[in-house]
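Reviewer 2 asked us to include a model.

Predict the structure of this chain.
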Amino acid sequence: MNAEVDDELAQDTVAAQPKVDVPPLTPAPAATLAAPVTGGGRDVDLGLILDIPVTLTVEVGQASMSIARLLALGQGAVVELNRVAGEPLDVLANGTLVARGEVVVVEDKFGIRLTEVLNPVERTRSVA
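Predicted model (structure tokens):
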């Protein structure tokens, strides 16, 4: 993709997102989350880690380029990512893939609607 693509292209992508009324997130009861998870022949008591803060990151895509090309970028430059428009975005918790979803606009803020959540047993195994 040419680095001199009109700014309108980038603005149209955001403007094309419909505003969506998303209900507030209601967490599962702590008793449900604290129940032991059986996996790999051992029980994991999630109740021990429920208060640990987690950083959620939404990954739109990636691009590789040389340092020379990076330094040549200027205002209005467009960097082509490795994702196709409309493809689900990755949701990572502390760098671990936990779900996939799509961008939504809630009032004046971006959000993500989860379209796929990875199996809890698989997520627990990747953390343990």
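The CA atoms of residues 19 and 108 lie 9 Å apart. The domain at 7-127 is CATH 2.30.330.10 (Surface presentation of antigens (SPOA)). We have added this to the supplementary material.
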